[in-house]
Amino acid sequence: MDVVIGCDVGGTSIKAGLFSPDGELLARRSAATPALVDEAAYAVVTDLLASMVAEAGADSVVGVGIDTPGAVRADGTHLLHYNIDIDVAGLRAAVSRAFPGAATCVMNDGNAAAAGELWQGSGRGTSTFCHLVLGTGVGSGVVCGGQVLAGAHGCAGEIGHMCVNPEEERRCTCGRRGCTELYASATGIMRSYREECERTGAEARDLSRGAVAVLEAYVDGEPAAIFAVEAMCEMLGRCLATTASVLDPDAFVIGGGVSAGFDVFGDLLRERYRAHASEGCEDTPIVAASLGNDAGIYGAAYGALRLV
Amino acid sequence: MDVVIGCDVGGTSIKAGLFSPDGELLARRSAATPALVDEAAYAVVTDLLASMVAEAGADSVVGVGIDTPGAVRADGTHLLHYNIDIDVAGLRAAVSRAFPGAATCVMNDGNAAAAGELWQGSGRGTSTFCHLVLGTGVGSGVVCGGQVLAGAHGCAGEIGHMCVNPEEERRCTCGRRGCTELYASATGIMRSYREECERTGAEARDLSRGAVAVLEAYVDGEPAAIFAVEAMCEMLGRCLATTASVLDPDAFVIGGGVSAGFDVFGDLLRERYRAHASEGCEDTPIVAASLGNDAGIYGAAYGALRLV
Question: Closest Cα of chain B to A41: distance in Å?
């Protein structure tokens, strides 16, 4: 049985999935992410993948795709990785040795998630769409004409770091100001909520469960949560409208942990998008992603499969 | 001899070019634009094209491409044309009757100019680039993977109407606020200059020759012109940096009448782009277009040629 592996290497955990070539998820593994800079650490990854393959009884691994934060150029060279200690070339070489004969590829994590949604998720059958991952940060990927764009420097689809508020004083993790991520990431939503609670003297809810608690407070009509969710939708609406002026995509697909609350904020996001979008593309569908946190492993596997 | 025609239908004039299939411009014609809504007016266009073909002694017109303002969907349907009175379907039918056997296509003017630069201009050999036409407005087109993007609603590459200044109070021709066009079109540059002259009590130069007079005043160190050109470069720099966060193109190509002064403002534009671009794509080349006002006829011809 031919199989393909998708391996999503994040700052905290490594997730791996084993797929049939037609996109069925056969098995899944995860592990904590070590500093991926030496052979011992690479072996953590290759052992994880090998045990998954062995247990599934697969006899031929035709491809292994790896996705990771940072800019990855079309040729697979890697730069600008902020939250992870990784030597991508070394890891890829170790994977190639462990699975001789398998095609390997390296992708940016936002691009992989977009590719996953294209292959088996909400983007299926859609020629051109933008996929956003609203998580700790805002990752994103652009699919254009059925291809995930890498860009000249591996920086295409970085709309989480699009400036949507030039007047902003606070800095984003990327060092610049007014990025979408400042308002629409889980971190950003929680920060907006806390700051508004402080400003108004309201007592903040326990946010140990993350941004979902702010969305619950929004449903309950808590003013600080209304402020945070409105800021998120306004800034994300600007970001999507600006993206539409470049690409005029068939759809926007919203994923990541925050998208679990899409039913709560989706209509407001559509309303803010429409307020900023140019006539002609104001009705572009904005939908929730369907693969959730698995989008990356699907997309990494798909990337490798396209090389086979 | 096989030939292909490109016909650029603007608000004031119609420009037509006759090309060999390998892109040599063999002849050229122009005429004032009538209200293109009836057979008599369509005949103005078809007679112009037929006389150009006859004089060149061409015996086989294989394609006729037409470009015009407004959004043109991939299927050729036309909407949102603000500054021109035109029935595109009627004109196209008249052209088809006048040149039976020729492939015909209709394109947005910004997209045609981008296609022209791709075929025979500064974009030649470049896979992904954005082309801007700084004229009365700011037209633009996006080439991605060697294809001009139309977009789901014919609105791709409308970055002249990207909002780069959400705090702006004045409205753009499109009805929204803070569009690139407000600052970087010839009209916008002249308006910035005049307003700054009024504000400071300086005497404004005669602008009957257009924005080029403001660029000359900038070279002479006139404060109001410095204000206008800095505003133009700041806002256009934001627009290109934002576009890079979506596409990370290989290059930006600047055309239109204002680009005649590219030597004057190019370095400042590059500096403002770099200030806003994300790490990784801050060195994207920004170059002047090489086809000038002929980009549209080249691109319309190229569009038709690709259907042959």
Answer: 28
Q: How far apart are CA B247 and CA B5, in angstroms?
A: 31
Query: Best residue in B140, B153, B253 to probe A by mutation, most A CBs within 10 Å?
Result: B153
Residue among A161, A242, A281 minimizing CB distance to B155: A281
What is the least distance, in Å, from the CA of B287 to any CA of chain A?
16
Report, as ranges of residue numbers, the positions in chain B whose pLDDT lies below 50: none
Question: Cα–Cα distance between A233 and A231 in angstroms, integer?
Answer: 6
Q: Please choose, from the candidates A231, A237, A200, the residue with its C-alpha nearest in 3D space to the C-alpha of residue A214.
A: A231
| Cβ contact B25:B298 at 8 Å | yes
Looking at this predicted complex, what is its ipTM? Answer: 0.89
Give pLDDT tens digits for B133-143.
Answer: 998 889 899 99
Query: Which pLDDT score, from 0 to 100, does residue A280 have?
Result: 87
Residue A32 has pLDDT above 80, yes or no: yes
Mutate to test the interface with B, among A126, A129, A153, A252 (most CBs of B within 10 A): A153
Q: Counting beta carbons within 10 angstroms of the beta carbon of residue B156, is it exposed (0 to 12), middle (13 to 18) or buried (19 or more)?
A: buried
| Alpha carbons A9 and A12: distance in angstroms, whole number | 8
Which one of B82, B161, B246 would you mutate to disrupt binding with A, by most A Cβ within 10 Å of its Cβ?
Answer: B246
The residue behind tokens 């950003």 is A188
Question: In this complex, do B243 and A246 lie within 8 Å of one another by their Cβ atoms?
Answer: yes
| Chain centroid to CA A268 | 22
Nearest to A159 among B151, B158, B246 (CB): B246
SS3 (DSSP) at A82: coil
Residues with Cβ within 8 Å of A165's Cβ and at least 6 positions away in sequence, in order, are A177, A178, A182, A183, A235, A238, B166
Residue B215 dihedral angles phi and psi, to the nearest 5°: -65, -35
Number of neighbours of residue B43 by Cβ within 10 angstroms: 14
Please name the residues in contact with A189: beta carbons below 8 A apart, sequence gap of 6 or more.
Answer: A183, A211, A214, A215, A228, A229, A232, A258
Using only C-alpha atoms, chain B has a radius of gyration, in whole angstroms, of: 20
The answer to whether the CB atoms of A166 and B165 lie below 8 A apart is: yes
pLDDT at A212: 93
Q: Are the CB atoms for B148 and B142 separated by under 8 Å?
A: yes
Q: How many Å lie between the alpha carbon of B110 and the closest alpha carbon of chain A?
A: 12
The whole-number average pLDDT for the span A107-113 is 91
Strands B286-288 and B251-255: parallel
DSSP code per residue over B239-292? HHHHHHHHH--SEEEEESGGGGGHHHHHHHHHHHHHHHSPTTSTT--EEE-SSG
Residues in chain B: 308
Nearest to A246 by CA among B251, B246, B113: B246
Tokens of A128: 């051109």
Helices (H), chain B: 39-56, 88-98, 109-120, 181-184, 186-200, 212-219, 223-247, 262-276, 295-305
Q: Do B79 and A154 touch (CB under 8 A)?
A: no
The β-bridge relationship of strands A78-79 and A103-108 is unpaired
- The number of C-beta contacts closer than 8 angstroms across A and B is 143
User: Nearest CA to A36 among A95, A99, A101, A104?
Assistant: A95
> Do the bridges between strand B13-19 and strand A251-255 make them parallel or antiparallel, or are there none, so unpaired?
unpaired
Exposure string for B231-244, b = 16+ CB within 10 A, e = fewer = bbbbbbbbbbbbbb
Nearest Cα neighbor of A173 from A211, A135, A147, A200 is: A135
